[in-house]
Amino acid sequence: MSGDSPVLKVTGVTKYFYEPVKFQVLRNINLDVKRGEFLSLVGKSGCGKSTLMYVLSTMDTDYEGELEIAGEKLTGQKQNELAAFRNQHIGFVFQFHYLLPEFTVLQNVMIPAQKLGRYTNEEIEQRAIDKLALLGMQEHVQKRTSKLSGGQQQRVAIARALINDPDIIMGDEPTGNLDSYNAGLVFDIFRELTSVYHQSIIAVTHDNEFARRTDRVVEMSDGQIMGAKK
User: Rounded to two decimals, what is the model's pTM?
Assistant: First the structure.
């Protein structure tokens, strides 16, 4: 895939909610995301940004328009095909880390690669250790995740998102549960992932400072993209 091709492309995406009454939540969304781009999605609560993120992540398939990721058209694919695609091509980092507390750091990071089934268990373990080392967490591999601080848990969640070398990482308020110091650390990790490793990242955020430092800020209002700022 050439460096100029968008890693993600949405064309004419429109979506309605029908309960309690018909309501248009997304209005003709068009968006391209380049490989290695760090993009933030901002706007007031209820503007449609979280709904758009669900569409981009392939979790929500009830929309008009088209979604393409890594050159593959995903609109119209079956749920099991989309689940397999997500596991291979999309990494997720949420406001809450969703780690399994009874598992070790290493076991948590290995899970998506074990589901993918492309590597041996030894290879998966080494990949997990490499990703944790990238995030400065290698000395914690055998700890239970419940023994880590909030900032450390979020770094483990980022390592888990990276384990299958996804085309794109999607963050839903990835710093929303962290203090300013740890929020800054997570931002710096994301910045390094995009600038050094050419990872594409889309993050929904309410943190204006976080958004301001990304490559592009896409602002939404009333289900529409109002504009993008570099």
Answer: 0.87
